Amino acid sequence: MTVYVDQLVPHPPPKDPATRRAGARHGHRWCHLLCDPDGEAELHAMAARIGLKREWFQAPPNASKPHYDLTPPVRADALAWGAVELERDGLRAYFARWNEHLAQRSAQR
Description:
Layout: E1 3-5, E2 9-10, H1 17-24, E3 29-35, H2 40-49, E4 67-70, H3 72-80, E5 84-85, H4 88-108
Parallel strand pairs: 1-5
Antiparallel strand pairs: 1-3, 2-3, 3-4
Domain DUF4031: 24-92
Region (Disordered): 1-23
Protein name: DUF4031 domain-containing protein
């Protein structure tokens, strides 16, 4: 399994005060730490390695895919620990894999 990071993107300041402060230190630029289907164990292991709390994990139905939000310095840590950087085409392929996985799971029900 592989863990990925996508590109940093500016976001509007969040409502949560602690998250707002964290984002403000980095120009409210965030990205995601992502995993392949069935790769949540590796995602959580990487998150722990780079100092993320499990309570920050986001998953369906409240998020489209399992992920953690990252600030720029934490993104750099993830890359240093071996996360794979996804450019635009890589991100499209990542979502295609997830959509195929979800379609197969749906067909099995």
